[in-house]
Amino acid sequence: xxxxxxxxxAPRAPTxxxxxxxxxxxxxxxxxxxxxxxxxxxxxxxxxxxxxEGEVFGLLGPNxxxxxxxxxxxxxxxxxxxxxxxxxxxxxxxxxxxxRNLIGYIPQERAVDRALxxxxxxxxxxxxxxxxxxxxxxxxxxxLHMVGLTDRADEVVANYSGGMKKRLEIACGLIHRPKxxxxxxxxxGLDVESRTVIWRHIRELKxxxxxxxxxxxxxxxxxxxxxxxxxxxxxxxxxLGTPRQLKESLQGDVLSLTPENGDSSVxxxxxxxxxxxxxxxxxVHRDGAIELRVTPxxxxxxxxxxxxxxxxxxxxxxxxxxxxxxxxxxxxTGHQIKDEWA
Length: 342
Ligand SMILES: Nc1ncnc2c1ncn2[C@@H]1O[C@H](COP(=O)(O)OP(=O)(O)OP(=O)(O)O)[C@@H](O)[C@H]1O
Ligand SMILES: [Mg+2]
Fold this sequence. Notes:
Elements: E1 29-38, E2 41-51, E3 56-60, H1 67-74, E4 82-87, E5 90-91, H2 96-102, E6 103-106, H3 118-128, H4 133-146, H5 162-174, E7 180-184, H6 192-207, E8 211-216, H7 219-225, E9 228-233, E10 236-241, H8 243-248, E11 253-259, H9 264-275, E12 280-286, E13 289-294, H10 300-310, E14 315-321, H11 325-333
Parallel strand pairs: 3-8, 3-9, 6-7, 7-8
Antiparallel strand pairs: 1-2, 1-4, 4-5, 9-10, 11-13, 11-14, 12-13
Bound molecules: adenosine-5'-triphosphate and magnesium ion.
């Protein structure tokens, strides 16, 4: 059962884009009011999203949240029960073929053929897109280079590690140089080193100007790779923004000061002075420290230290903590992203 822990005084979930991008820039993908039901399950339940050119947009949510279903609708593979999707100016419903030419898709699960070499795989995909032989070979070489597989391209896939197989899948999705690349859980089940390599390729593709939409249920991946994130839960949008905006929306940066002198009168005096500062939301005493919940601002640390010095108090320790994306997720969905037994 889902439990809500969002108090009535909590900041409203940001579900509209507050970044500069919305200022007059047309989205490259616009989905409005998407709904997809499987029997009684509403896999996607009224989702509206916009993605902008050149960004890495993340769909972050737990297993079963509706990420793959959303992606499959965006890429023309699944017809929505309701809603409208426009990709690169074309309505998916009317112009699926044109949309397909603009996009590449790396599915969550694709069994690469272990008997073929990497390069043979690429040739297969080049055929799928009806590329002339020379063009296919040229693009295949580029895509294999992009994912760092040039040296291993003529080995059979059976010899590849899990991370290499995933990189080959990404190369396959790149063969027709798509404008937009969709990656469904690109690092699922990979070891740390392979994940880092895939992250590097995603950053390189972004630097080449590619727009990417990726799904993940890894919080660190979402935090480090995505320019903007949609937190999806039970088919609905729970929050939207840059990782930084989402963290700041909690208004929960915590500044902890431990005075050298544990004297309670010192702490009381300091507490009263600190409460008077702008951007200090709340002050509590915890384990000999004074803990301030502050609204993030460039000057808050300096102003707090000015007060501390003005009161003649010397500090033994000082700590500044910003809420993690995990806290953000819990705040907006009321539960953790991973099941406890997962
Ligand atoms: N073809 C299908 N038939 C029936 N139910 C489906 C089908 N595809 C998805 N669902 C259901 O829709 C819901 C959303 O599934 P979806 O695969 O979109 O989630 P997800 O966010 O991609 O999850 P995961 O992180 O596990 O990949 C789930 O309850 C799933 O069981
Ligand atoms: Mg999925």
